[in-house]
Amino acid sequence: MEPISKHQVAKESKLNIWRLYFSLPIISWALYDFANTIFSSNINTIFFPFYLQEVIGENEVLNQIASTFVSYSNAVASFFLVLFSPLFGVLIDRTGQKKKFIVVFTIISAICTMMMGIVAGQSYSGKWFGLPITLSVVVILFIFAKFFYHSSLIFYDATISDLATKETMPLISGFGVAVGYIGTLVGLTVYPFVGNEGFHEAFLPTGILFLLFSLPLFWFVKDKPLPIKKKETFLSGYKEIISTFKDMKQHQAIFTFMIAYFFLNDALATTIAMMAVYAKTIVGFTTGKFILLYLVSTVSSIIGSFIFGYIAKAKGSKNAISYVGILLLVALIIAALAVNESMFWLAGSMFGVALGSMWVTTRTFIVELTPENKRGQFFGLFAFSGKVSSIVGPLLYGTITLIFADYGNIASRLALSSLIVLTVIGLFIHFKVKLPVENDN
């Protein structure tokens, strides 16, 4: 019998990875990333900000007020996530149940998204909170949709440890994010039916697509339930969280990274929420041009997230996160200084790579650093860190645009520049993370 060559072993290994990618549980899990990215791109990044700008903005000053509305509505949704996301993590550790909550939260989010489209198409007399009733209800529905969307992601991200080994986790994470960004391309198929006005017409089909592509996970991904423990109240989970904080010295690396992630995610989340308005008001992109830019950024995200799965496997997740953070920093600097469309095209493409890759690498790094019996809790705490930053970032951005609104476009450039500072702080703290000996690269 002839010995197997290294080339044959490598070929077989690659074949096994592709078989893993397209196994029913993994592809179903990845399709949920596909589904929720449709919501994230269509609602959070593109059509909801455009809708607010269409309803409110008529000149440079009102455009800045529309930016403030986008920022503050995102901040309110994140505030509720701050309250509940740590408890969701404790719930995962107590029960092992993840799919049940993904299903419930996804359905609620999708229904709220569809209702945004239905309500926005109506005209009601009267005002709430000094705003037209239609606008007020749409903003409230957006807050609920965003809250339940992000809540589902806490449970979804935690499922990766049930589906992958330590060796395959970076690859599976990268594959999931890459498939997710293909969802962005599918989500944008609603644009030809919307055009350059009536942006609320994108809401209803987006909710339907979000729910439709979530169904494979609903059907084919199974939980690994834990032995039934003593029944405890939902709010009692705060006791476990406080206990974990008391043991902070035992988990120093994870808490240090949590602080770094706060600042890095602050810059990412705020850019996602504000990039559409910034591109149109500062750089002069038309809606059509921005959609094209977003398509290019999405392709960059697909390629970047897939490649960074392999980089994380080869170089370690910590190093990979450093590379992504530096890329994000350069993209923000170019965007803040952009004086023509070419500079913003470059910044958008680089940001696309950074965005997808940050989710690939951080999700893997969390699993590497956390003990299995507290993994759900740390995923919850990371969601907590991310959502606190999702309050601070939009509030900071929105406050700067509000204070300097009379200066027109300079306000948005100053606001974006504040994200550069946050990224530098995040990178500095990340460099301080000390890996456990077994994880050191």
Description:
This protein is an all-alpha fold and 441 residues long. The chain has one domain: Growth Hormone, Chain: A. 78% of the residues lie in helices and 1% in strands. The chain contains 16 helices and two strands. It has helices spanning 6-21, 24-56, 60-95, 99-120, 133-158, 160-163, 169-187, 203-212, 215-220, 237-246, 252-281, 287-315, 317-337, 341-369, 375-403, 409-431; strands at 127-128, 131-132. A two-stranded antiparallel ribbon has the order 1-2. A hairpin with a 2-residue loop joins strand 1 and strand 2. Helix 3 (60-95) runs antiparallel to helix 11 (252-281) and helix 7 (169-187) packs antiparallel against helix 14. The longest helix has 36 residues, at 60-95. The protein is globular. The chain starts with 5 loop residues before the first helix and ends in a 10-residue tail after the last helix. The model is unreliable at 1-10 (pLDDT under 50).
- What is the CA-based Rg, rounded? 21 Å
Percent helix among the residues? over 70%
Strand order, main sheet: write it out: 1-2
Whole-number average pLDDT?
80
How would you spell out the order of helices and strands? HHHHEEHHHHHHHHHHHH
Individual helix count = 16
| Shape call | globular
Uncertain segments are 1-10
Structural class based on helices, strands and sheet pairing: mainly alpha
Q: Which properties best describe this structure?
A:
disordered N terminus, globular, 16 helices, Growth Hormone, Chain: A
